[in-house]
Amino acid sequence: MAHPLHIDREGHRTWLKWHRARRKVTDPVFTGARILEGMRLGASVEVDLVIHADRGCAVLHNFELEKETTGTGLVRETSAQVLRGLHLRDNNGAVLPDRVMLLEDLCALLAEQPPQAGALLQLDFKEELAALDERTIANFADSIGPVADAFILSGGDIGAIRALSSAVPALKTGYDPCYGDSLARLQATGDFARFIGDALTAAPQADMIYLAFELVLSAQDAGFDIVAPIHAAGKRIDAWTIRRVTPSSLEQVERLLALKVDQITTDDPEGLHAALAS
């Protein structure tokens, strides 16, 4: 069986990003084994980062520990030592043997088992600029520095992305404008051209622009190709997130492929790849 890495259509390659390090929809999130597998295969993989009490980052999505781990309380109030002792939970809440990873643990794994050329691990930073301080930025740079080529740092707060990436010059960056004031203006005006123009102006150094796939398709329905200006600016576009493979989602994915998006984020890369290949 072919590995679920990408789909080639009409001379254009669209990568299937392993959302929260899932290869298939039944996978638990953020396990080291799946992350390493994806990077070994040359996949595009995504994990999330939130700040913990010792001013480093944990590989978790939620600010609260209960849903994803055996812990309780807020990540920002929990020490690195305590976090490393917690176990992850699967999609049904069952406890897994896998433990919570910190960013430095993830970077150490990649240093020990270097990824295949072309593999890319997205660090989706869930915090805002106000949450950062000099210690957090320094810890981030110390962890990322030796393996920066394997990563792309993304987020919805461009100020936070600039602050972190400025400490790691080799680090690629991405920007997701589907939050906050820019999205509110789009919802009020329907002006897709201004929305994407503002995003490109806000993040001139970004390698990737991340957009909700519904927004991409809504722009097309309104007669605006939102992919074209991103490509014209020399950037790539990721459309997120296809949760499950259904007749409806396959129709949406076919439209995204026709628009030549560069990446589709999905919780089921394996199922989506199989369905598209058939």
UniProtKB/TrEMBL annotation:
<protein>
    <submittedName>
        <fullName>Glycerophosphoryl diester phosphodiesterase</fullName>
    </submittedName>
</protein>
<feature type="domain" description="GP-PDE">
    <location>
        <begin position="45"/>
        <end position="270"/>
    </location>
</feature>
<dbReference type="InterPro" id="IPR030395">
    <property type="entry name" value="GP_PDE_dom"/>
</dbReference>
<dbReference type="GO" id="GO:0006629">
    <property type="term" value="P:lipid metabolic process"/>
</dbReference>
<dbReference type="InterPro" id="IPR017946">
    <property type="entry name" value="PLC-like_Pdiesterase_TIM-brl"/>
</dbReference>
<dbReference type="GO" id="GO:0008081">
    <property type="term" value="F:phosphoric diester hydrolase activity"/>
</dbReference>
<dbReference type="Pfam" id="PF03009">
    <property type="entry name" value="GDPD"/>
</dbReference>
